[in-house]
Write a structure and sequence with these properties.
By secondary structure, the chain is of the alpha+beta class. It contains 13 helices and 18 strands. It has helices at about 5-10, 50-55, 60-65, 75-80, 110-125, 130-140, 155-165, 170-175, 235-240, 245-250, 270-275, 305-310, 375-385; strands at about 20-25, 30-35, 40-45, 70-75, 95, 100-105, 180-185, 195-200, 205-210, 210-215, 225-230, 235, 255-265, 275-285, 290-295, 320-325, 350-355, 360-365. The strands form three sheets. Strands 1, 2, 3, 4, 5, 6, 7, 10, 11, 13 and 16 form an eleven-stranded mixed beta sheet that branches. Helix 5 (about 110-125) crosses helix 6 and helix 5 (about 110-125) packs antiparallel against helix 8 (about 170-175). The longest helix has 13 residues, at about 110-125. It is globular and about 65 Å long. Belongs to the FAH family. It comes from Streptomyces olivaceus. One of its GO terms (molecular function) is hydrolase activity. This is Fumarylacetoacetate hydrolase family protein. InterPro entries: FAH (IPR051121), Fumarylacetoacetase-like_C (IPR011234), Fumarylacetoacetase_C_sf (IPR036663).
Length: about 400
């Protein structure tokens, strides 16, 4: 993965066999909803002005398959024009596959990442103390915490023991307590897609990718599809204080989603999400390479339980939401100086993949060096009205 991928790399293992929805910027028209088909990308904006409208329709997968629209171009052609350095602004390029949905994320839903959050808290965001804190926490909590069901009597009993020992943490509270951590990852329309630069705040000295599966959820609380996401995280910022979570999570281009939204149908559904194995690859311009893999089966809370905590009588999302389900990775291997752990370098290529959803690839840049987010909801509405789609 030393270069941008081609279409065969980013598509799911069964190619265009699934109901794949995406978004493309069309010069002169603006964002367009596309169906990803064997012969290329078809603009179905006339049928579905937004991906939100598609997800709110009855049986979105069947509706997408039945939709007619102009063929824009082949996927390879549009993908090749997506990286900003070589982009021809007169030709179309790929966008994140969601639009008006709220971009939400669930935190500490895997034991490994939960313990890493506790470590960040203990060392106050200083990577140099992480190794010692990691061993101390593991001795105290043990690895069998992975078997605990959040909110169970057993989890409550462990909490009592840890509180008595002065070892309780706000991250353990949301990791094994009754209430999940669900937060707003990014504003509507700010997510970046496959082939785009992903942003890390230049002041951060300890940060990492967070590879995740993300669910598309309708306004009624139904999970209607899935995609891949990178919930880019600043470990030093969050470690200083959990109240700095917005600064750690929401920076320019720090929410990546894609490559496409695969809608649920008879061949792909929530059980495929539960069974997914996700791989992470990081390749640096300096020759550095990190590879890892993990299983969604290790998640502490079922994806639909997280959806139920996201949306219900107390929280409504009339345009639906996309929900990052939490990361199963927390890279800890030293990259630079001993004891400093992993952190990104400018120019890292990050690939997140699973066979049924394809591969999301982004280049890491400083957030102020990424393309600024300038196209908002009012701009989208004006562009759809101008083309007669509303």
């Amino acid at each position: 993965m030393n270069q941008w991928p081609d279409a065969s790399t980013i598509l799911p293992a069964d190619g265009t066999g699934g109901a794949l929805a995406g978004r493309v910027w069309r010069p002169g028209l603006g964002p367009s909803v596309v169906a990803v088909r064997e012969d290329g990308l078809h603009d179905v904006t006339a049928a579905f002005p937004t991906v939100r409208d598609l997800c709110e329709s009855p049986d979105p997968a069947a509706r997408l398959r039945a939709a007619h629209g102009e063929r824009i171009a082949g996927l390879d052609e549009v993908l090749a024009n997506t990286p900003v350095d070589d982009r021809d602004p007169r030709r179309p390029w790929l966008l994140a596959p969601v639009d008006l949905q709220a971009v939400k994320a669930a935190g500490v839903t895997f034991v490994v990442s939960m313990l890493e959050r506790v470590i960040e808290e203990r060392v106050r965001g200083d990577a140099a103390g992480a190794a010692e804190a990691r061993e101390s926490i593991r001795r105290l909590v043990g690895d069998d915490v992975a078997a605990l069901r959040p909110g169970s009597e057993e989890a409550a009993a462990l909490k009592e023991i840890l509180v008595a020992q002065g070892a309780w943490s706000q991250y353990l509270e949301v990791g094994i307590g009754p209430d999940a951590e669900i937060f707003t990852k990014a504003p509507v329309l700010s997510a970046v897609g496959v082939g785009a630069d992903a942003g890390v705040h230049p002041a951060s000295r300890w940060n990492n990718p967070e590879p995740e599966v993300a669910l598309a959820v309708s306004s009624t609380g139904a999970a209607v599809g899935a995609t891949l996401g990178n919930d880019v995280n600043l470990r030093d910022v969050e470690g200083r204080s959990a109240l700095l979570l917005p600064q750690a999570k929401d920076n320019n281009a720090s929410a990546a989603l894609g490559p496409f939204l695969r809608l649920f149908d008879a061949d792909f559904g929530i059980d495929d999400v539960r069974r997914a194995t996700v791989t992470l690859t990081v390749e640096g311009a300096d020759g550095y390479r990190l590879g890892a893999e993990s299983s969604m089966a290790a998640i502490s809370r079922d994806p639909l339980d997280l959806v139920a905590q996201l949306l219900g009588p107390h929280h409504q999302y009339p345009d639906g939401a996309v929900l990052y389900l939490g990361t199963m990775f927390a890279p800890v291997e030293d990259r630079d100086a001993p004891g400093q752990g992993f952190t990104h370098h400018d120019g890292d290529l990050v690939a997140i993949a699973t066979p049924r959803l394809g591969t999301l690839v982004n280049r890491i840049r400083a957030s102020d060096a990424c393309a600024p987010w300038t196209f908002g909801i009012a701009d989208l509405m004006r562009s759809l009205v101008a083309r007669g789609a509303l």
